[in-house]
Every structure is written in C-alpha cells, then in structure tokens.
Amino acid sequence: MHYQLSEVSISDAEALVRQCQFPAMRQDPLRKIMFPKSNGEKEEEEEEEEIKWTIEGLEESLENKSCYFRQVTYGSDCVGFAVWTLEPSGDRATRRQKSKPTPLKKRESWNPAGLDVEAWNQVSMRLREERQRVLLLDQQKIWRLNTISVAPEHQGNGVGSMLVRWGCDMADKDVLNCFVMASPGGLALYDKFDFLVTGETKKADGVCWIAVVD
C-alpha cells in the first residue's frame, strides 16, 4: 500500500479527529493550555466530550469555502490531514487590525467541561496578533497553514511533507508566499521547504509558537 493524497468531505470529519488529530494532539502545547487536565487526569467521558467538540469544529471548517482541506490515506485509514487558507492582502489586514480585537468565540452553544476558555482566548489573541503582523509584512495574499495533524504511528514517513507540499505548490502556482505558526518541534518539517523564521510568540510558562514564512 502507498500513501494517497485526496480531498476531504464533511463525512470524513470524525475519522480525521479520531484517527489523526486527537492522537497527535495528546502532547500538543496548545491542547495542554486549552485543556489543563490533558495530562492523564481526565475521565474517559470528558475525553469523549472533547473529541466530539473537536469534530463539530472541524465540520464547521469543512463548510467554510475559504478552507482548503487535504488528507493522506493509507489503505482505508486516514493518517494525516491539513487545512490551508488563502489569507487577504496586507492592506486588508491593516484595516482589521485598526478595529478593536475581540476574543475568539467558537461554538457558543456548548464547550467541554475541561476547556479553559480564558486561557484559550488569551492564546488565540496572541497568535492572531502575530499572524496579522506577518500579513502586514507581505502586501499581497498569502497561503496559511492553519492545521496539520499526522497520526503518531505514521509520523516520520513523509505524510506531513505531502500535506505541506500541496500548500506550497498552490502558493507557487499563485506566485504567493506561505505562512504557518509552528511549534518548535515542527520547524524541521518546514525547513525542508525553505520556510524562514520571522517572529516568535511566547507564554509566561515558556510555551512558544514561531512565525515561519516561505
């Protein structure tokens, strides 16, 4: 069998989360901030609630026409996926930045019991500010990698590279740059595609994300 790159439909959301995103995020620094009890103290019921909440969020993104999804399958299993968006030009980012930023509010109908909403909003705001800073540096549209997840047992096999290469190819076709807010552990992947570090966002506890532009 070989890895195959393909499009994603809304019916794939549950498999993407259960087979890729949730297993890959167990040690993710952002998840540890959002869900402080994600270090093994969580009950099975709470974990299932978090999974369902994540699935709903992914379904919302799949309905968003500005999001470009790609998945990698191995046989019948989904082993990785990525979400790319084509961000607006720098002048539009400037107009957005002049307006007073507001905390991100997602799926207000319900949140998992273990979600630290305040911490989530604080981190989201800081990441958004750094994203806007990068957009201001580039006075044209830019392809941004929003999300990338690879099932742990398939990491190191080129799955992540397939997903990043797709976005880079789209950017090359449009003669545009690429951008991602990466954790330090992800820099090796983006270095393969000649991304350059342009900034850094840190939290008081030492957790950081790095702005990387191709």
Automatic annotation (TrEMBL):
Gene3D superfamilies linked to this entry: 3.40.630.30
Superkingdom of the organism of origin: Eukaryota
Domain N-acetyltransferase: 53-195
GO terms, molecular function: acyltransferase activity, transferring groups other than amino-acyl groups
Pfam family, one: Acetyltransf_1
Matches recorded under PANTHER family: GNAT FAMILY ACETYLTRANSFERASE (PTHR42791), N-ACETYLTRANSFERASE DOMAIN-CONTAINING PROTEIN (PTHR42791:SF1)
Name of the protein in question: N-acetyltransferase domain-containing protein
Record organism: Aureobasidium pullulans (Black yeast)
Lineage: Eukaryota, Fungi, Dikarya, Ascomycota, Pezizomycotina
